Amino acid sequence: MRGSSATAARTGPNSTSLDRQRLLLGVGGTILLAVAATMVAAALLARALGADAQVVWRALVAALVGGAIVLALAAKHLRAASFGAANGVTLARGALVTLLVALLGAAPSAAVGWAVVALALVGLALDGVDGRLARSRGEVSAFGARFDMETDALLILVLALLAWQLGKAGPWIVLAGALRYLFVAASVPLQWLARDLPPSRRRQAVCVVQIVTLIACVAPPIAPPVSAGIALLGLLLLVASFGADVGWLARRARG
């Protein structure tokens, strides 16, 4: 009886709670490493661009805020035994977005434009890696999918702001990054918008096209009005994609 009780204690709620604590400690450690690596990269980036220390400070604030959000979401939604390699790749993409955030407010220049292009291209190249890695390693999860999607949404918002900052498009381009957040805000009073959407190749393709058009827009060799035209094309495709999703949800709501 005593042995049975001891076994039950080891495999009961206390054991589960301990495993959960270890998981979150591991996630927190991974995030801290990512923050440290981001700070080193931000310092090197500022030095290469001849920028002031504000770039590093903006990177620090963005990394700490982003890391805290990821840790909070992992504590609430992550149901795996570990953070996983796929989520690690997405975290690396988030670190690249953090470096782009740090460039907001930097004096416009060709060097800044090329830095944005390089960071965004690496982030885009990694975009498909985390999904394939998750499938090959059996790490597919709702948390990972949401983490990936929100990283894409933030990348689009920051690139849109940088396109405006660099004078490549007017303030209207910010709508490309704001659409996702406007959609989420609208789903609060209109709860039918909060329903799950089915997987869509069209949605994935438009997301990639939007990122590519924004990267092309900020590239130093491409000047207005050509850059604005490229940005407008991506924005129109994104608006059409959101419109298709809203229409699908509206039909479901009526049904």
Largest sheet: none
Distance between the ends: 58 Å
Mean pLDDT: 91
Helical percent range?
Answer: over 70%
Coarse structural class: mainly alpha
What does the radius of gyration come to?
A: 21 Å
Search tags:
single chain; 255 residues; 9 helices; 79% helix; disordered N terminus
Q: Can you put this structure into words, describing what you see?
A:
- This protein is mainly α.
- The chain has one domain.
- About 80% of the residues lie in helices and about 0% in strands.
- It is built from nine helices and no strands.
- Helix 4 runs antiparallel to helix 5, helix 6 (about 140-165) packs across helix 7 (about 175-185) and helix 8 (about 200-220) runs antiparallel to helix 9 (about 225-255).
- The longest helix is centred in the first third of the chain and has 37 residues, at about 15-50.
- The protein is globular and about 60 Å long.
- The termini are far apart.
- Residues about 1-10 have low confidence and may be disordered.
In short:
The chain has 9 helices and no strands.
List the helices and strands and how they pair.
Elements: H1 2-11, H2 13-49, H3 54-77, H4 85-102, H5 110-137, H6 142-165, H7 174-186, H8 201-218, H9 226-254
